[in-house]
Amino acid sequence: MIHLTRKNLKRMRVFVTDGYWRKTVAAVRALGRIGLRVTVGESTYLAPGLFSRYCYRRVRTPSPVLQPSQYLDFLEDYLTHHPHQVLMPMEEDTLLLLAQHRERFAAITRLPFASYDSLLFARDKLEVIRKATALGIPTPKTFEITNIDERETLGRQLQYPVVVKPRVGSGSAGVHYVTEPSQLSPALEQVFLSGQLPLIQERLPPDGAGIGASFLLDQEYNVRASFIHRRIREYPVEGGPSTLRESIIHDQARYDGARLVQNLHLTGVAMVEFKIDSRDGKAKLLEVNPRFWGSLALATNAGVNFPYLLALVALGLDFPPVLDYRLGHLCRWLLPGDILHFLKNSQRWHLKPSFFQFCKPNLTYDIIDLRDPLPILGSILALLPFYLSQDFVHVRTRRGSRTWNKK
């Protein structure tokens, strides 16, 4: 890996958006520990990323979701008067907004992500499944539905359980687990009412691990870094963000994931989500996230500093591909993720590793870090704007999505 001189590092400034999220804390730490000066923006000062000791400057911005035009104006003005070499959006809404208006920032900073059209294509789960199928990448059986009147005909073709999900979205937002025919219609109606088109997929056996394959690609779609992890625990328990995960090697996920993101013409960072089908042992594609992912701290703690490498790519600096990292490294989202998993999991007393195993040589945390303790306080205080501010109503709505799943 190339390392800039300390003098050059101190001159390099990176503006990181969306200071509210734990992945932003990971990015701020990863950049700051290298020596870069990091400015963090968010619509509230009660954001964990702004509490980090590695946050050089804190900026309160308009909301990119509720006030997009004001956000663009503010950011353009701020970066004009306070030069930063790299602009690093962390959340999907912010990334899409900035990518759509890339020309406004072309002369003042670097935005190291794919074109707006490529990002939109990668967010469409059905289009991604079609692309993967054409490349010979294993996928779950997938059914398209464009009209609610098709439900009866389609319902007779299905073998339950199935998953109903919006074509556009990420994580567990809007996902419905359907275990019998009577649950199909309400699940489809929920997705249609949200303004989205649904798709239906077979639900893979639950005993197969979830696999995340993360990549950094340059402007020529070359893979400059990669990292693989498996999910150990999630919240919601039936499928959601990982609360405990481990760095691993999985050759098929690395190979298929790289081929897919390259063929999608993605640049910058992206994560491809797979699930192991225990019936045939293959990793089957679930979706692509063309942005930073929630479990970023695992990769940075295990030795792949994606935010720093992304900054190097943005500046056109060369470095050897980063493909090696510490295997068996664990990273945990304890507050509140793994606590909620413990409370909701009927097998809570039989978890492996145990919920009560808080200290291990190979275990780190998304937020908790004694070298940078204040984001812990920030995470607690951040509950206030999350539940009280209009800035996060769209997130609360997504997190409140209903699932149709009989235990």
List the defining traits of the structure above:
single chain; 407 residues; alpha/beta; Dna Ligase, domain 1; seven-stranded mixed beta sheet; four-stranded parallel beta sheet; globular
User: In angstroms, what is the radius of gyration?
Assistant: 21 Å
Number of helices: 15
Q: What order do the helices and strands follow?
A: HEHEEHEHHHEHEEHEEEEHEEHHEHEHHH
Q: In what range is the share of β-strand residues?
A: 15-25%
**Envelope shape:** globular
| Biggest sheet descriptor | 7 strands, mixed
Strand order of the largest sheet: 13-12-9-10-11-14-15
Assign the CATH topology of the domain at 141-203. Dna Ligase, domain 1
Mean pLDDT: 92
CATH architecture descriptor text of the domain at 141-203: 2-Layer Sandwich
What can you tell me about this protein's structure?
By secondary structure, the protein is an alpha/beta fold. The chain has a domain at 141-203: Dna Ligase, domain 1 (2-Layer Sandwich), CATH 3.30.1490. Helices cover 33% and strands 21% of the residues. It is built from 15 helices and 15 strands. The chain has helices spanning 6-11, 22-34, 68-81, 92-100, 116-123, 125-134, 151-155, 184-193, 251-263, 296-302, 306-314, 334-344, 374-381, 383-388, 393-399, and strands at 13-16, 37-42, 55-60, 86-88, 142-144, 162-166, 176-178, 198-202, 210-217, 223-234, 242-248, 268-277, 282-289, 330-332, 363-365. The strands form 3 sheets. Strands 13-12-9-10-11-14-15 form a 7-stranded mixed β-sheet, sandwiched between helices. A 4-stranded parallel β-sheet has the order 3-2-1-4. Strands 5-8-6-7 form a 4-stranded antiparallel β-sheet, with helices on both faces. Strand 1 (13-16), helix 2 and strand 2 form a beta-alpha-beta unit. It is globular and about 65 Å long. It starts with 5 loop residues before the first helix and ends in an 8-residue tail after the last helix. 44% of the residues are buried. Mean pLDDT is 92; it is low at 399-407.
